[in-house]
Amino acid sequence: MSPQMIELLILFAVAAFVLFRLKSVIGTRTGYEAPPEHRGPGSDGPGHLPEDQRAEPPAEEMALRHTLPADARDALAAMRAVEPSFSLDEFLDGARSAYEMVLMAFEEGDRQTLQNLLAPDVYRAFEGVIATRESEGLSVEARFIGVRDVRVETASFDPETSEADVTIRFVGEMITAVRDRENRVVEGDPNEIRRQTDVWTFSRVMGAPDPNWLLTATGE
């Protein structure tokens, strides 16, 4: 076997290892799929009440609108009891924004942004992949296309510590390509939109001065 062939095999082995680590951190990517079924008007909206009557519903009603099980509804109600300003809709809007920020910071190797958004153990996992990628001369070019779906999977609340955990399932779309030192694409396609699914858990102590939720667990 020629030295050039051996070098190429080593390169692809390294790329495969880094991509395996990447998948374990940020979730599962698949090819482009059709968008989810269109939901009829008013399925999530406030109905036809006059504008001044559209007050934010209690946590139980918000949870029902997001088709959560009873234990999750109870957890959200407990969060709202400790912190009346808590809104599930606003939380999901923030989670959607955080999802894009975390994914792009990870792809771009933006450690500072990740430190601000991730719990320490999750940050170490992300940073480890970034460091390996850098040491092997691999770079990622990425573009975030959008979020197809965001939904609550589970929620829990500890009355002793007031710690809240909300697990979200995201379906997002990105364009990613991994390049080696010679700028050759070793994984992905800079012209292909790919879909990925992530299940992330965000945590926070309700009623605490810090309003920020941290990403404390990732899965798929």
TrEMBL record:
<dbReference type="GO" id="GO:0016020">
    <property type="term" value="C:membrane"/>
</dbReference>
<comment type="similarity">
    <text>Belongs to the Tim44 family.</text>
</comment>
<dbReference type="GO" id="GO:0051087">
    <property type="term" value="F:protein-folding chaperone binding"/>
</dbReference>
<keyword id="KW-0809">Transit peptide</keyword>
<dbReference type="InterPro" id="IPR032710">
    <property type="entry name" value="NTF2-like_dom_sf"/>
</dbReference>
<keyword id="KW-0472">Membrane</keyword>
<feature type="region of interest" description="Disordered">
    <location>
        <begin position="31"/>
        <end position="58"/>
    </location>
</feature>
<protein>
    <submittedName>
        <fullName>Tim44 domain-containing protein</fullName>
    </submittedName>
</protein>
<dbReference type="GO" id="GO:0030150">
    <property type="term" value="P:protein import into mitochondrial matrix"/>
</dbReference>
<dbReference type="Pfam" id="PF04280">
    <property type="entry name" value="Tim44"/>
</dbReference>
<dbReference type="InterPro" id="IPR016985">
    <property type="entry name" value="UCP031890_Tim44-rel"/>
</dbReference>
<dbReference type="InterPro" id="IPR039544">
    <property type="entry name" value="Tim44-like"/>
</dbReference>
<feature type="domain" description="Tim44-like">
    <location>
        <begin position="72"/>
        <end position="220"/>
    </location>
</feature>
<dbReference type="InterPro" id="IPR007379">
    <property type="entry name" value="Tim44-like_dom"/>
</dbReference>
